[in-house]
Amino acid sequence: EALTGRGVLSCAMAALGAYRCIECNREAAELYRDYQRGVLRISICKSCQKPVDKYIEYDPVIILINAILCKAQAYRHILFNTKINIHGKLCIFCLLCEAYLRWLQLQDSSQNTDPDDLIRYAKEWDFYRMFGIASLEQTSFLVGIFITLWWMRPEMLKTKSDFILLLKALLLSSYGKLLLIPAVIWEHDYTPLCLVFIKVFVLISNSQAIRVTLNLNRVLPWLAILFGLILENGVVCLFQNMGWDV
């Protein structure tokens, strides 16, 4: 019943072999076979002889828990075997969360309580500025990752679709940034520590997304992330040298 509830995925994807086995990452023509009259059977991978995607009969909550645990199988299910197109909206929302956090910290450091309209407009502009800075930092981080991977493994990113798939994976794996808002709302003495844990969790998720998407070992994704962080911090230093609060 759970299997039928997910509906039939795109036939075009099956024709192109766009599905992947969540165990061995090999291409698969189909996720399951419909024998009519409600009889469905999960396809078996010809390479590893395991179910191509066991998650198609799992509850979404279970899939989410497995993704939070950074299981490669859950990431392959989400990236290759489902049609999720929320990466753009998720990216914008995460940037808004990060901009709000920075804007709030900036307001806390300001002692001006003048209710004048000019002050309110200035504070609103500060939020837009923080959003722009967060966007540039995120872009620098992603560019650093792409440059490193393209330089070290150019065969992995040969086509435009390869870049788009990796970008989608990185944006989706940054969902941990949504925890920034609860960390601010439930502010307490351990908030800075919570922010550090959120940052580490996002980086671990990004690493797993790179590893799953490009079928790499654990070392290269972390090297790409390290270079991305270096480029991101370079942008931060640039803004600080310009006298901007970041």
UniProtKB/TrEMBL annotation:
Ranges that cross the membrane: 127-151, 163-184, 190-207, 219-242
GO BP terms in the entry: intracellular sterol transport; regulation of plasma membrane sterol distribution; sphingolipid metabolic process; sterol metabolic process
Compartments, as annotated in UniProt: Endoplasmic reticulum membrane
Annotated GO CC locations: cortical endoplasmic reticulum; endoplasmic reticulum membrane; Golgi apparatus
One Pfam family in the UniProt entry: Arv1
Top-level taxon: Eukaryota
InterPro entries documented for this protein: Arv1 (IPR007290)
Protein family according to the UniProt entry: Belongs to the ARV1 family.
Name of this chain's protein: Protein ARV
Organism encoding this protein: Rostratula benghalensis
